[in-house]
Amino acid sequence: MSEELLRLYYPLSENEKDVLAGRLKPPEGQENLVLRREQFLRRGKLIDVKPNHRFCAAPLHSHDFIEMAYVLHGTLTQQIEGKAVVLTEGDLLIMNRNVHHTVELSGQDDIMINFIVLPEFFERAVEIAQLEDSPMHRFFLSCILDNDNTPDYLLFNVKDILPLRHLVENLIWSIKNDIPYKQTTNQLTMALLLRLLQYHAGHVRSDEPGYGLIWEVQRYIDSHYRDGSLEEAAGLLHYDYRWLSHEIIRKTGKTFTALVQERRMQQALYLLKNTDYPVQEVCEQVGYANNTYFYKLFQRTYGVTPKKMRGAP
């Protein structure tokens, strides 16, 4: 797919040819622009793709839509809220709304595809993905709700994670071409992409120091919620046990034990809703040996007993 997309996007556009030949000068004097969705999306469209303009630097701007940028080839540098972020092949940048950034001058081999995504499209994808509560999930919700209590961006390198790379590139291809059932297909693809990005949280970077650590911890909990421990997590992640405990509380406001308990309850709810396992087996599968304690925690979390939850519509 990468080669097919390169054949599609590597040839110069007419504007790029004109700039390169000196027939057209890049715009000057435009700073702090606010890019509006109607400038980029055709009527009725919720998502579209647009290649980055080579040979022109993008001046300082923000946008009222969610922006995703995927580097198909080469290297590009953005200044995001005044901080330099270098993007290389296979990088996927997801940027919150109203974030101020620039894109520095790029060459012919530097190919970046920008996704213009409306919040309602993203909201539906997040809903379909059924993401577990986590800092990453809260970032995705922040993109939809347009609040500023999460990082300005998340940056993933998916070059060596083939399922993720294929999903991004299939999404580009689907949006670019008129395939049947395009909107439904694209929302399902985006939902699966978000789901896998959460699973690969260890590959994320952001503008807020320490958040990568919390995503690493969350990833550990997702894999070891039945029998994991803070001591084991600290050892696997190469952190001091007491320091890690303090950082988790400082960054999330919750203890490691509370995060594990949340994840266990989420898994218990999923099993009750989607399997025929007896409640006792659900209790054991999520890591509790004491059935009474499990019932108490579940009712405190969801307001009903496990049996009543299973009978709910």
Account of the protein in words:
The chain has 13 helices and 11 strands. The protein starts with a helix and ends with a helix. It has 2 domains: about 1-205, Jelly Rolls; about 210-310, Arc Repressor Mutant, subunit A (Orthogonal Bundle), CATH 1.10.10.60. It is elongated, with a radius of gyration of 22 Å. A hairpin with a 2-residue loop joins strand 5 (about 75-80) and strand 6. A 6-stranded antiparallel sheet has the order 2-9-4-7-10-11. Strands 1-3-8-5-6 form a 5-stranded mixed sheet, with no helix packed on it. Helix 3 (about 120-130) runs antiparallel to helix 4 (about 135-145), helix 3 packs across helix 6 and helix 5 runs antiparallel to helix 6. The chain is α+β, with helices and mostly antiparallel strands and about 325 residues long.
Tag the structure with descriptive keywords:
47% helix, 313 residues, Arc Repressor Mutant, subunit A, alpha+beta, 5-stranded mixed beta sheet, 11 strands, Jelly Rolls
Second rung of CATH, namely the architecture of the largest domain: Sandwich
Overall 3D form: elongated
Write down the secondary-structure element order: HHEEEEEEEEEHHEHHEHHHHHHH
Overall average residue pLDDT: 88
Strand elements, count = 11
Distance between the termini: 42 Å
Which spans have pLDDT < 50 for at least 5 consecutive residues? none
Main β-sheet description: 6 strands, antiparallel
- Biggest β-sheet: strands ordered side by side in the sheet: 2-9-4-7-10-11
In CATH, the topology of the largest domain is named Jelly Rolls
Structural class call reads alpha+beta
Number of domains: 2
- Percent in strands: 15-25%
CATH class of the largest domain: Mainly Beta
Radius of gyration: 22 Å
Question: How many individual helices?
Answer: 13
Helix content: 40-55%
